[in-house]
Structures are given as C-alpha cells and as structure tokens.
Amino acid sequence: MSKSVFNHVVLLCRSGFEGECSAEIIDRAAAIGVDGYCKTDKRSGIVVFTPNKPGSALRLIEKIPFSTMIFSRQWFAAIEQVTDLPPKDRVGTLAQAAGRFPRCKDLWLETADTNEANSLSKLCKSLQKPLQIKLKAFGALRASGEYRLHMLFTSGTSAWVGMSLPGNDAPWLGGIPRLRLPKAAPSRSTLKLEEAWHWFLTPDTWGEELKAGSWGVDLGAAPGGWTWQLVQRGLKVMAVDNGPMADDLMLTRQVEHHEADGFLFEPPRAVAWMVCDIADKPARVMHLMSTWFVNRWCRKSVFNLKLPMNKRYQEVCKLLDQLQQNCDQHNIKISWQAKQLYHDREEITVMVRLLD
Ligand SMILES: C[S@@+](CC[C@H](N)C(=O)[O-])C[C@H]1O[C@@H](n2cnc3c(N)ncnc32)[C@H](O)[C@@H]1O
Questions:
Q1: Of 146, 160, 275, 340, which alpha carbon lies 20 to 30 A from 296's?
Q2: How far is the CA of 242 from the centre of ligand 1 (A)?
C-alpha cells in the first residue's frame, strides 16, 4: 500500500480542548508548508486534521516533533475512517484495512479520553489478541517494523486506522501514562510532577537529571506532593508556602519550609531545580519564571501555567514567546517544552532548562 493513502492526522487531546488542539496542528502544519483543515466534535477528545494536499499526513507526523505539540496527547496518520465494522467480523474488517500498511512493530487499540469512549476499552481488550494474530498472518506486524499501528475506536462499529512513528509519538496508549498514586504522597498533585517528568525527561536520564543531594525549590509547595517527588529522588528542598507542609515530609530532614511569598522568594544560592504549582495569573507566573532564568537561580524548572479564558492556544504561545525573548535579551540560552498533561485541567505544564 502506498503511503499516500494516509490523508488525515488523528490527534487525541483533553476533552474540551479540541479548539486548541486544532489551532495548534493547523499552525504547525502551515509552518512546514502543509495547509489543511480540522474536523472535531465538541468534547470528543479527538481532532482530525486533513491536509489539502492528499497523502501528506504521514510526512507531517514524521516532520513535526511530537514533543513540541502542547495540546495533543497522541497522534497518528490515518486512512479514511472505517465506519461499517460488522459486529461479527470486526477483526477481519480491521485487519483488511491495515493489512497492506508498511510493516508495523506493534498494534495499539485506543479510545479517546471521555466517559463514552472509555466504555469501549473492553472491546479493545477483546480484539487485541485476535487482531494481532490476523495481522501477523498477513505479515503486517513484525518486530522489525518501522511504524506503530493504531486503531482508535469511536464506537462499536467505527474506528480510525493508521500509523505513527515510534519515538515521535506518545509512548503510552492514548497518550496517558498510567501512574499510581503513592500511598505516602501528601497530595494527588504529586502525580502531576511525576507525569511531567515522564513527558519531559528521557527514561534513562532520571538519575542524572534528578541528582540525589542537589537542591530544589518548590514554590507553592503545601502540603508537599511535588516536594515529596523531589525528596524521593534524594534532593533537598526549600519548600515555599505560607500553608503547612505534611509532617512526614518534614521528618525526612530533606526539607526546609520557608513561609514566604513565592513571588518574592530569592534562593540563597543557585539550585538545580525550581518547581512551581502556584495557581496565579499566567502572565504573572511566566514573569516569575523569566526572573528565575534571567538570574540563573535554577538550571531546570517544571511549572504550571493556568490557561486564560479566551484564545487559549494563542495566549500560551504569546507567553512562551515572551519567556524566550526575555532570556534572549539577557543572553540566557534556554530550551522549553510544554504539554497539557493528563493530570492538568485548565492548565498546561511547562519545563524549561538552562542550556549553558
Ligand atoms: C495547588 S497547591 C500546591 C500543591 C502542591 N504542589 C502539592 O503537590 O501538594 C497551590 C499552593 O500554592 C500556594 N500559594 C498560592 N500563592 C502563593 C504565593 N504567592 N506564594 C507561595 N505559595 C502560594 C497555596 O498556599 C497552595 O498551597
């Protein structure tokens, strides 16, 4: 099958953020010379981008680094949606649709992240094995395959079928890393920082990036879910918050509690990490982050950015541009990544690194 049959890019996003996800892919595709349009249903968690020039979908998901996409959790290039799956032979029909794709190394059956779609996950589980067997028989699934085969079920009788390039997609089904809430963590928010690290750090570099014995600052730390993550990795933490920190965390003797305003706090010396979970106006938070990097107070940061009410995608881009410009003006070299995480609601999470 020719790669030119891939006429759509299917993107998964948080339900309610289809507009932002659409604006972003249209923008990013245009930047590499691919114009197109999006179709989406309100709160479906799915956006379908169709390039005006047929057959350019695969090129798109290979050329745009997935790590630079903020509002999309997963993506793949797809053929036309299969809409007439016979309940008695879904396997045969789907295998037929994908049977002549370029070789794929694995098969992912996915749904959007909505209550309705989640009810299809049982169906996905029941189809996984038989589909794998059938596709292997067709020679479409091989360990040496270059691509990843995706089947995204939108109902019991319809699915998007397509491929992504492993390494330039999300390495988790539906773009959601399944994390367990650690019993000892002081708050559920702890999962947000852990998820951020899964997205922003490469798995084998965690030990190097989160070096035991180094210092971190946690702005807006109470009761201590983010501090707990840093402490688990052996870091020492200045936890800045007027609210109380969890007692167990203080007993570790790795935490200094600073009852202070995070917007005024200056670290006594430069630190490896600064994390910030203060829910304030996004422009105010971004200004604070600029101050930290321009002064080289930290080398790396993960912070939350609350989304504005309107033009959320455009505003986020504007704020990230401002951070970059501020740093450029002061000759501070940084790189950044931003993502709306599974654990984010009306916000995104940003990671910034000092490069020199
Ligand atoms: C969402 S909670 C942080 C939760 C924390 N990351 C955790 O995992 O447990 C936000 C915190 O920011 C704190 N906060 C709000 N404004 C602040 C400020 N100006 N300076 C310091 N802390 C602030 C609040 O007291 C609150 O504890």
A1: 340
A2: 8
Output the pLDDT for position 4.
77
Superfamily grouping for domain 190-354: Vaccinia Virus protein VP39 (3.40.50.150)
Q: How confident is the model over 88-134, as pLDDT tens digits?
A: 999 999 999 998 899 999 999 999 999 988 889 999 999 999 999 99
326 CB near ligand 1 (under 6 Å): no
Are the C-beta atoms of residues 67 and 28 closer than 8 Å to each other? no
Active site residue 306: yes
Nearest to 49 by CA among 73, 87, 18, 88: 18
Nearest partner of 120 among 87, 97, 81, 73, judged by Cα = 87
Q: Which CATH class is domain 3-175?
A: alpha beta
Q: How far is CA 119 from CA 21, 201, 210, 255, in A?
A: 23, 32, 38, 43
Q: Spell out the domain ranges in the chain.
A: 3-175, 190-354
CA of 279 to the centre of ligand 1 (A): 7
Pocket test for ligand 1, best of 187, 241, 263, 276 (most atoms within 8 A of CB): 241
Given 63, 105, 211, 306, the catalytic residue: 306
Average pLDDT, the chain: 96
Give me the pLDDT at residue 309, please: 85
- In this structure, is the dihedral angle defined by the CA atoms of residues 115, 120, 121 and 122, taken in order, positive or negative? positive
Longest dimension (CA), the chain: 68
Q: Is 187 in the pocket of ligand 1 (CB under 6 A)?
A: yes
189 lines ligand 1 (CB under 6 A): yes
Residue 188 CA: nearest ligand 1 atom is: 8
